[in-house]
Amino acid sequence: MKEKLQNLKYFLKGRKLVGLLALLIIVAAVPVAVYLTQKVTRFQAPAADEFVDISFSPSSQTMPPNSVFRIMLSARTNNVSFARVVFSFDRTKVRLASEITTTPLLPDIIQKSTMAEANATGLATIVLAVPPSQTLPTGVIEFASFNLTKVSVIPNDRTSLLFLRSDTQDMQNMQIVTDESLTPTINITDASLTLNPAATPTPTPLPTITPAFTSTPTPIPTNTPTPTRIPTSTPIPTASPTQAPTPTIGSGCPTGQENPHWVFDEEYQLCYVDYTCGFSDLRCNF
After folding, report:
1. Highest mean pLDDT: which of 123-127, 250-254, 260-264?
2. Cα distances (Å, whole numbers) of residue 42 to 102, 183, 184, 260
3. CB 62 within 8 A of CB 197
4. Does residue 35 have a pLDDT over 60?
5. Tens digit of each residue's pLDDT (9 = 90 or more) over 197-229
6. Quick check: 193 and 160 in contact, CB under 8 A?
7. Minimal CA–CA distance to 69: which of 145, 142, 140?
8. Which residues make beta-bridge pairs with 273?
9. Which of these, 266, 259, 263, lies nearest to 245 by C-alpha position?
């Protein structure tokens, strides 16, 4: 009987030890469960009407030389607890020349592409979060930075750094979560790149030749001779022969001498003898 009581005592002691260990495990699991619950709540945030800006700085660049690009996040008045940013580039024209550096304001690095991964796919993913005990950043945040180099050798080639918009598979490539578990609208600004700029030759203008001063001779007035008026000669009228009036035979001749051989000229008032008759003397009566 005494031996049975002793065995029962050891049995009860073992049960107490097991129960104590179980209690300690439960107490230790509570903070972990709370932390995980907060993380899940942040990452599965509902949509909101607020918005933030994500852009590359600089937004345009000429290469070479190699250039440092920064991903800027303007949260405005939002307190950011989680951010997922994805960008792409044409790996036949440019590539990363350094690893991606992230901001200490979101210290939990959930995912970050390496330089080799980004250059192999032309795609880089950066996912950062803030632990529950840390103050959430707001305002303008330098989210990440990297060095870029050119690959293309084509003169005046062009390409871009592009943020990925939401795809069609119910998964957001770009996502921001605030302290109120909201996912604000994201406004994005890409970057444009000009590679191997070739200077366009500017034609050299030909010098303008200024002509030497040439004195303009003063024209000597030409004496224009005054035309001498040639008097118009009045044509001398050609005297038309006056037809002698036909005298009246015997008119004005001496009485009794009306000979048909006497002729009386009325214009000159004289008588004359028609020589055809052989008479040569004049016998006129005035």
Report:
1. 123-127
2. 20, 9, 13, 173
3. yes
4. no
5. 998 767 777 777 776 656 666 666 666 666 666
6. yes
7. 145
8. 262
9. 266
Please confirm whether the linkage preceding 254 is cis (ω < 30° from 0).
no
How many other CB atoms sit within 10 Å of the CB of residue 117? 13
CB contact at 8 A, 74 and 62:
no
**Beta-strand runs (E) in 64-195:** 67-74, 80-89, 94-96, 101-102, 108-112, 123-129, 140-150, 157-163, 175-178, 183-189, 191-195
161-180: average pLDDT: 77
Q: What is the distance, to the nearest Å, from the Cα of residue 230 to the centroid of all Cα atoms in its chain?
A: 80
Report whether 88 contacts 122 (CB < 8 A): yes
The two three-digit tokens of residue 56, written as one number: 């590359």
Query: Rounded to an integer, what distance in angstroms lies between the CA atom of residue 98 and that of residue 75?
Result: 26
Is the pTM of the predicted complex or chain greater than 0.90? no
Nearest-angstrom CA–CA distance, 191 and 144: 15
DSSP code of 276? G
Which pLDDT score, from 0 to 100, does residue 108 have?
A: 97
Tell me the C-alpha distance between 8 and 59, whole Å: 79
Q: How confident is the model at residue 165 (pLDDT cuts 50, 70, 90)?
A: confident
Closest CA to 177 of 106, 113, 112, 109: 106
Topology given in CATH for the domain delimited by 47-195: Immunoglobulin-like (2.60.40)
**Which residues fall within 8 angstroms of residue 177, CB to CB, at 6 or more apart?**
42, 43, 45, 80, 81, 82, 83, 183
Domain ranges in the chain are: 47-195, 248-277
Tell me the torsion sign for CA atoms 66, 107, 44, 121.
Answer: positive
